[in-house]
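Question (not urgent): is this output format expected?
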Amino acid sequence: VISLRLCFFEGRAMVRADHQIQHLTTAPHLRSLTLSTLLLRTPPAVFSSLHDLILENVVAWTSYHEMIPILSSMTSLTSLVYRWTRDRPFFAIAVPHADAEDRQVRLERLVRLVVSSFLMEDIALLTILRVPSTAQIVFAPRSTHHYSVTATPSEQELSFQLFMQLVNVLQWLVVNYIDTARQNGLTILRTMVIGRGMYIQCRSEKSSQVATQGSPGQSASPYPPSFVLLTPHIMTPSWRDIFLMKVFIETGVSRSTLGIIGCGGGVLPDEKVLLDLEFRAPLLQELALLSEEEALAFSGRAARFRCRTLKKLIVRCDLQEPGRTLQALVD
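Got this back:
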């Protein structure tokens, strides 16, 4: 057996399946495992030999203290996906301090990490885990709540103070990723603003070929070193722009030498963003404009940009006056 999917349930209730999973130790060649809809409180021995693991709607812990022994048992993992698609029993997970060495788990072989459950739990996972800077990390929490995937507060229910606390935590995640990548010899290749967050792609300064860190003879990773951050559905456009400005501009663009920049969500017309873009224009190789508002903002200031190295200008949006706007961009 190389790959296996196990789903345990009794009606709508979850089942504790520690005993059944322990029998998987008799499958020494098992490398890929998906567990769905169960209670798992003891790390099974098979976790130590797995390469790919998906935990879907699995209650494996109720605090970050319980996360550590489970995560520490996954020493051979190259891909870990943790996600929730349904409501679960209520419990709240506190986030450990980022500098606490005794609260860190290193997964040296990991090339892909996807966390898509509940906001504080996903933050706790990224705080605890230490993965290679060449890994692909996807942070896409479904909800801000601890138990419901759909009960995300509206802007009216979420105070601005709590919103800014959320932004500060997400900003820390981005800063930590960028600093770790640069400390390990990577540079920021591409930064994109996307509908609910941002995308950062890195490349190694030592080699143009994206490869994963690991033991000699390990094959190259199919996942480029990157960080995808998607926010829960708690933001109106105005709040989303605050998030993007604070996280994307201040921690992403302004601290890195970028040759390729893509924007979206209405951030480019902001004066601070335009000034930052004007500063980077002489080294810019590619620019993507993903809305008419951004195309007009760029064309209105294009004469001030000195895009000597620009090789590609992408306009991926509908234009009310395409001829005039495109001519302004070219001129």
